[in-house]
Amino acid sequence: MKLELETIPVWDGVASKSECYVCDLMAEAQKDALSFYLGNSVMNPGTRVKVNESGFCTKHWQLLTAANKPQGIALMTDTYLGMTRTKFEKSINSLLGTKNPRQAKKAIQSLKEDMQKREKGCLVCSAMQQRLDRYLFTTCYLWGEDSAFRSALQEGKGFCLHHFQLLLETAPAVLSGSLLAQFVHDLTQTEVLNLDRIANDVHWMTQKYKSENMDKPWNGCEDAHKRGVDKMTGRHRVIDPV
Ligand SMILES: [Zn+2]
Ligand SMILES: [Zn+2]
């Protein structure tokens, strides 16, 4: 695997003691990719061709339209809708010309296939995916090369389950032999400790709602439900890369 190392953001991430620094880095990657499609790049014909072909996933179309930059979105939507109309022409004519149930079912299926192709891929997700691959690679690489990073990762709060699994999946391309086995063991140990920590926090939160515990301290568990959900699912993840 040949990937550019991203040592500085990954070191900053591990030093931040976040619940999942990969999620934080993905939030940045998403922001950067959205800014690109909200900026002057949409005036560039090459960008518009890419938008016409791939478009965005529903989440990223929504974030783009919510960003209060209507002119650029109008330009992209204008040509995207035109392209969609062209791609759907055959299916629409079949739907309009249907004469019997067999033709109707065939036309409905054809539109479904067009929709599936049209909705596949997202330019923001694919930009995020490229950065994600580099962050995962760098994390495994630094763990193998730098004992200070190894300790920092062990003392950290682990990752969301989604990025934990992706790190494990990346590891065999970066580490080998006993190092790979040790990485898998150490990362899992840190992850399980931190899952248990959050589970205890969430449990205390449920107990705090009982009247007998009303006057007891929260112990920092006021937001444990949110941290629990984030830990299980990841706050920022790639949905639909091209
Ligand atoms: Zn994450
Ligand atoms: Zn997307």
TrEMBL record:
| Annotated InterPro entries | DUF6062 (IPR045706)
What is the protein's species of origin?
Sphaerochaeta associata
Instruction: Please state what the protein is called.
Output: DUF6062 family protein
